[in-house]
């Protein structure tokens, strides 16, 4: 990737700057305790099933079928096999998961140093997460001050990989795509759509965050 001419970074949040996988795994360990007797499988075997429920109902949120709260509750109903419980009961059962998830929020390796090294560039978060939740993460992690804007599904009226969310972010600072670099962990949602719009793009992945961020910092230091 050439960093020549790059003036702005568009950055995904979950599993790019924020270690969502860690928070999710720790939260599931807390959540499953009271419900373990429902299942014959061990926790390690149940976690992929939980992830499948997360992905299934998250896509419904991205498509506008569910609110953020509803996708959480549908995920719980799906996983526990309790389709008819009320919203209030679903919220009560889900709360220990949310509390644990918040306790285990942390940056991905190398993210803090990368943000410090790219202060000379315009930075915009582009996330499919809910606006309130994502802004709360940035504040908790102490990195909110790095970003000119935080663009979410609610802000843009569209979710990645829809080009509208990227174009919304670019329009906020009148940015040309060819002068922007998208950094994210998801090829389908982050990398491919950014490249189709003419942006440079760089993928991070589990176990490679620190190395990728260090390399990007060096490439972008004279951008």
Automatic annotation (TrEMBL):
NCBIfam families: HAD-SF-IA-v1, HAD-SF-IA-v3. The keyword Nucleotide-binding does not apply. Keywords: Hydrolase, Magnesium. Its cofactor is Mg(2+). This is Pyrimidine 5'-nucleotidase YjjG. GO terms for biological process: small molecule metabolic process. It is an enzyme of class 3 (hydrolase). The keyword Hydrolase applies. InterPro entries: HAD-like_hydrolase, HAD-like_sf, HAD-SF_hydro_IA, HAD_sf, PGP-like_dom2. The gene is yjjG. Its EC number is 3.1.3.5. PANTHER family: 5-AMINO-6-(5-PHOSPHO-D-RIBITYLAMINO)URACIL PHOSPHATASE YIGB, N-ACYLNEURAMINATE-9-PHOSPHATASE. One of its GO terms (molecular function) is 5'-nucleotidase activity.
């Amino acid at each position: 990737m050439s960093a020549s001419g790059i003036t702005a970074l568009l950055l995904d949040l979950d599993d790019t700057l924020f270690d969502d996988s860690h928070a999710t795994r720790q939260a599931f360990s807390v959540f499953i305790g009271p419900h373990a007797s429902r299942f014959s499988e061990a926790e390690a075997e149940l976690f992929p099933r939980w992830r499948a429920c997360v992905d299934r109902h998250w896509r419904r949120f991205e498509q506008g079928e569910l609110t953020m709260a509803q996708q959480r509750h549908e995920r719980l109903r799906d996983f526990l096999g309790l389709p008819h419980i009320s919203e209030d009961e679903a919220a009560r059962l889900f709360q220990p998961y949310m509390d644990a998830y918040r306790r285990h929020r942390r940056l991905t390796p190398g993210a803090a140093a990368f943000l410090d090294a790219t202060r000379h560039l315009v930075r915009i978060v582009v996330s499919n997460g809910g606006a309130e939740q994502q802004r709360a993460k940035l504040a908790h992690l102490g990195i909110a001050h790095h970003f000119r804007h935080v663009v979410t599904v609610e802000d843009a009226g569209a979710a990645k990989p829809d080009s509208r969310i990227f174009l919304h972010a670019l329009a906020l600072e009148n940015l040309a795509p060819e002068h922007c670099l998208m950094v994210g962990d998801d090829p389908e949602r982050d990398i491919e759509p950014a490249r189709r719009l003419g942006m440079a793009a760089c993928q991070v992945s589990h176990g490679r965050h620190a190395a990728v961020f260090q390399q990007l910092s060096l490439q972008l230091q004279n951008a």
